């Protein structure tokens, strides 16, 4: 029983869990080695209605609650965190496109996104830094009906695999800060776009890299939101992704915990099962409690979003707490497996996979600043 999930959402989660166990879990370690996201699996996810089910019906979506996206997301992540980036990027970018794009431009992209036929990146971070997110240098300049884009985005998830990106850049002066930023939908096959890929610690199937723009001509129709309002209008979507990231990493932690409870209930030492020792079972019980509590917080953030209520502070809580907790849980589970936990395998991959989310989409310090501003007032917590 869960106060946020009715019978339909529980059934949807069960359906996603069966699919993920059957189709995604078997190749989870192979994809880490080959560093390629499987496009045919993406299409299967799309055919099942598992990608961005919350998108409005007017764009061909299913118009479901964001809680539906959440329960699917955690089941996909439980099997393979990299594959669940497909859901995360589709929900975040799908919300931005559907709310801020011109319907005739974004509808074909949204159709492909939901079908698993296209992958979108979100390009905000620059080499100069990511935390001070409004301090952008990438230039977006008007040229008649078009924009010309010059500059670099870095540390972008799926940079070399994505078909298009939502790109934030500066249309105003450097001094204009958040009020001189514009967002564009940029198809990444346009002339002047080049890409690189990093050698990441985890999340290796989705990967990260840089996007380079050299005199890239983008039609003005591809602008998202108003000129110079990209940061203020379009950035609102990040509350959604922060709650989803919480569910994503907690699902990986839950998988590690479930396996570890089974393991310690069977493995023997000193004539007893490991779980008979409180030094083994109590740390696991502590962490299990915290995973349950953190999951409820993430579901609450989505529930608030579905009700149209403020949830920025709750989403920031999910984003700093869940990735740290998930890392601590998997670390403890790995140790409980003794020397076997240190072998290359599911447990060490999970540890590498969840770590990235202590940085990606904003660090704990930035999330705590958002929470402090919500509680004490923005003027009491200056940048
Ligand atoms: C796995 C992963 C995926 C990512 N995916 C994307 C993506 O798809 N798109 C995208 O645009 N970016 C992405 N990023 C980039 C990410 O958003 C940035 O790395 C992040 O915002 C931090 O920026 P930075 O790395 O430049 O660190 P910096 O901003 O240089 O910060 C360095 C350290 O200083 C701390 N710090 C900075 N300012 C303050 C302050 N005011 N108070 C206290 N501490 C502070 C930070 O918390 C951090 O610990 C990803 C990163 C990772 C690791």
Automatic annotation (TrEMBL):
Keywords: FAD, Flavoprotein, Oxidoreductase. Residues 7-117 form the Acyl-CoA dehydrogenase/oxidase N-terminal domain. Residues 121-216 form the Acyl-CoA oxidase/dehydrogenase middle domain. Residues 228-374 form the Acyl-CoA dehydrogenase/oxidase C-terminal domain. InterPro entries: Acyl-CoA_Oxase/DH_mid-dom (IPR006091), Acyl-CoA_Oxase/DH_mid-dom_sf (IPR046373), AcylCo_DH-like_C (IPR036250), AcylCo_DH/oxidase_C (IPR009075), AcylCoA_DH/ox_N (IPR013786), AcylCoA_DH/ox_N_sf (IPR037069), AcylCoA_DH/oxidase_NM_dom_sf (IPR009100), Cyc-hxne_CoA_dehydrogenase (IPR017620). Pfam families: Acyl-CoA_dh_1, Acyl-CoA_dh_M, Acyl-CoA_dh_N. The keyword Flavoprotein applies. Its cofactor is FAD. Transmembrane segments: none annotated. PANTHER family: ACYL-COA DEHYDROGENASE, ISOVALERYL-COA DEHYDROGENASE, MITOCHONDRIAL-RELATED. Belongs to the acyl-CoA dehydrogenase family. NCBIfam families: cyc_hxne_CoA_dh. This is Cyclohexanecarboxyl-CoA dehydrogenase.
């Amino acid at each position: 029983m869960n106060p946020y999930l009715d019978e339909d959402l529980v059934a949807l989660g069960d359906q996603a869990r069966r699919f993920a166990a059957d189709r995604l879990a078997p190749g989870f370690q192979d994809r880490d080695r080959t560093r390629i996201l499987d496009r045919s699996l993406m299409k299967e996810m799309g055919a099942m209605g598992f990608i961005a089910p919350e998108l409005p019906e007017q764009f061909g979506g299913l118009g479901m609650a964001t809680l539906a996206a959440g329960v699917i997301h955690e089941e996909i992540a439980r099997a393979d965190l990299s594959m669940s980036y497909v859901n995360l990027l589709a929900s975040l970018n799908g919300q931005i496109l559907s709310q801020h794009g011109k319907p005739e431009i974004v509808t074909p992209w949204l159709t492909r996104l939901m079908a698993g036929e296209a992958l979108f990146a979100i390009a905000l971070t620059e080499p100069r830094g990511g935390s001070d997110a409004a301090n952008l240098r990438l230039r977006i300049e008007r040229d008649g009906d078009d924009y010309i884009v010059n500059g670099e985005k870095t540390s972008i998830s799926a940079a070399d695999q994505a078909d298009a990106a939502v790109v934030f850049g500066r249309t105003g002066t450097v001094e204009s800060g958040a009020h001189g930023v514009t967002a564009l939908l940029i198809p990444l096959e346009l002339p002047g776009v080049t890409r690189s890929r990093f050698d990441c610690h985890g999340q290796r199937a989705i990967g990260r890299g840089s996007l380079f723009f050299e005199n890239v001509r983008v039609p003005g129709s591809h602008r998202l939101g108003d000129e110079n309002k990209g940061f203020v209008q379009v950035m609102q979507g990040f509350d959604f992704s922060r709650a989803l990231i919480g569910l994503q990493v907690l699902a990986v932690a839950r998988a590690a915990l479930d396996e570890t409870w089974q393991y310690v209930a069977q493995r023997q030492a000193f004539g007893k099962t490991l779980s008979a020792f409180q030094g083994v079972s109590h740390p696991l019980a502590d962490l299990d409690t915290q995973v349950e509590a953190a999951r409820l917080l993430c579901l609450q953030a989505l529930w608030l979003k579905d009700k149209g209520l403020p949830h920025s502070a709750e989403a920031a809580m999910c984003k700093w707490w869940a990735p740290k907790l998930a890392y601590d849980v998997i670390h403890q589970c790995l140790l409980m497996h003794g020397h076997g936990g240190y072998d290359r395998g599911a447990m060490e991959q999970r540890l590498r996979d969840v770590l990235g989310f202590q940085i990606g989409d904003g660090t704990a310090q930035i999330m705590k600043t958002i929470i402090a501003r919500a509680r004490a007032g923005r003027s009491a917590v200056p940048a």
